Structures are given as C-alpha cells and as structure tokens.
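fyi for ur records
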Amino acid sequence: MENELERGKDIVNGACDRLKSSVTLKLIIIGIIVVILQIPTFMIERLNTRREKTGKEAQQEIFSQWGKKQTVGGPVLIQSNPDGDIRTVLPEELAIKGTVRPELRYRGIFQTVTYSASLQFTGKFAPGTGDALYFQLSDIKGLADGKFLVNGVAQNAQTPASLKVPYSPGLAIPLVPQAKNADGTINFDFQLTVNGSEELNFLPLGRTTRMELASDWHSPGFIGDFLPQSRTITPDGFTAEYQINELNRALPQSWMGKREHLDQESFGVNFYIPGNIYLQTMRATRYSALVIVFTMLAFFFTERLTRCRMHPVQYFMAGLAVVLFYVLLLSLGEHLPFARAYLIAALAVALAIGYYARLIFRKNGPAIVEFLLMLAAYGAVYVMLRMEEFALLTGTATLFVLLIVLMTLTGNLNRENGKSGNQ
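which gave:
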C-alpha cells in the first residue's frame, strides 16, 4: 500500500515537474498575460483621451476671450433694386498682404497658439453703384482695429443688419455719394488688426486674388482648398504667396439673392504646435503590444539560458512596468518637450526592468542585457514615431526582424526537449 502511495506521489511530482518545465505551457501563460495587459493599456488610452479633452476645453476658454479660428474675406458689393432684390458682386481685383504674430498662451499646464494678424485688403470693383460693402469676419470679437477707405474716403464700419446687408457675421461699410470715382469704379483699401487662434483662413473672392502672408512661426500647416504658389519655411518663420483666379473657384462673379455660405471655399494656414503630446502618446500606445511581447520573450529566453525559472507573477510584473511607461510619458509630456519626456520614461522603465531582472536571476549579466534590450525596443518605437510617413514600413520591418530573431532562438527548442526527455 505504501509502495503504491509512493508511486502515485512520484507520478504526480513528475507530472508537475514536466508542467513547470513545459515550454508550450509557459508560452500559453505568457500569451494570456499579454492579453490581460491590454486592459490597463486600454485604460491609459482612455486617460489620454480625457486629458486631451480637458486641454481642448481649456483652449476654448482662451479662444472665447481672445478670438477663435478666423475666416476673413471680402469685401463684396451689395446692390439693391426698388423691388428689394439683393445682388452681390465680387471684386475684379483683390490683393491681400498680411503679417501674423503667433504667441503661445497657457491655461494651467495646457497650451495653445493665438495670434494677432495685421491685414491689408486692396482692390477694386467694376464700374457700378451699390449700397454697401460687406466684409466677412467669422469671429467679430477678434477685431482689434480697422481702417476702411473707399475711393480714398474714410468710412466707419457698421453691423451688417444696420445697412440691411443679408450676410453675417462681419462688417458693413456704407457707400456714400462723395466716395465715387469719375470712371464709376469702386476702389477699397481696408487695414485690419485681427486676433484669432490656431487657424487663419481667407476667401478667394476676387476675379483675381493675390495674397502675400508672412509670420515668424516656424511650423505652419497650409490648409484649405488652395495651396500657395510659392512658400519658404525656415526656423525663423515662413512666407507664402497665393494667386487664385475666377476659374479656380466655385463662386460666380455676381448673383441675385443671398448665398448661405460665402466661405464654401477657403485657404489659409494652421499654426500647429509640433509634438502634440496626446497625439504622440496615442501613437506610442499602438506599439504597446509589440513592446510587451518583446519584453516577455526577452525574459523567457533569459530564463531558458540561465535555467532559472520565473513565476507567472514575475512575467506579469515585468509587463506592468512596460504599461507604466505610457503613463510616465503622458504625465511628463504635459510639462516637458516630447523627446525629453520619452527619454526619461524609457530610461526609468528600462532601469526598473533591469533591476527586476537582477532580483530574479541574481546575476548582473542578465540584468544588463534586459536593460539594453528595453532601451533598444523603446529606441525603435521612437524612430517609428518620428518617421510618420514611413511608420507602416518601419513597423513592418521591425516585426519581420523580430520574427526572424524568434525563429532563430526557438529553432532548437524541440531538440532541447528531446534531450531532457532522454535523460
């Protein structure tokens, strides 16, 4: 009876030993841990989204006080007949010159770009008469100053409703009899100082529209339906020149009645802040599964080489350290430039992984190797983040190289199991 019990214990102990040394079981456990770690990764993505939303709310408070994204255009000539019908006429020539002075503003730890733009609109209308000129300005609160000359005569801007102009928002400039040219043309020269945020857009309302825009902002994004004919971007700022004619736009030169949207076509510039921490963090978390798998396999092969078994809890703790990287990146990135925040977070997590490897394997060699491997992994991810246009290519190449390395390292697993079984 005792012999049978001893034999049963030996069978159970042997089965347990085989399970503990089973490569297949260990890989299954690692796979389960990788899947479980996607839960806190998803929570970090949600946190990143909430922080970005909070930042946008802070930006909107600044916008509402200083000026929102501005769309400026015009002027257009408003004509009316005795029946009350309205006719809108666009200028024959429209020349725009502008200088934009952006500035970073903060609300707590959140930042955004505001600007003050000095703009000059000059041009002329074909011979004719009219009641008023309408100038579109999407956020009238941003108008800091304005001088309006019509045929050389200064005029005071009024609200569109006061002159029965059917468009808004914006300004209306009355046409008085003394402000007329002998040939019937209507010349205008408007000089405005406009405050706004993030974007400055213009409307191509002239039969021929030309614009010269300059700024000391070093990272512009040209947006809208038309791109500049020429542009120069340097660390000290940018210049851009546009030329748009009647054939390029959808609006006719004149029409009866009111059009709901004069701004159906626009062009302009976006003063964006490079290295947006929330966008970069979201892009970094997309590679989280790759880094977690890389970390798990690095520990797995170190375990095989040192013949020091790791508990599943130890794998899980190492994976949590990788997940913590993204929280560190987000929290540091709200106060530091992205590159510096990424470096500090990567060093912190790599040191933690190296320290944990030293505790597990009781040797300095595996700890140093784990530290260097983690730095290499985060370095590869950083390169992929910086190479936006080649992110898919570099990501695919990284996965392919990782696959080749894994195939090389796992090629002898069946032989090792066979040897252990023969012994």
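The longest helix spans residues 38-66. thats all i got for now
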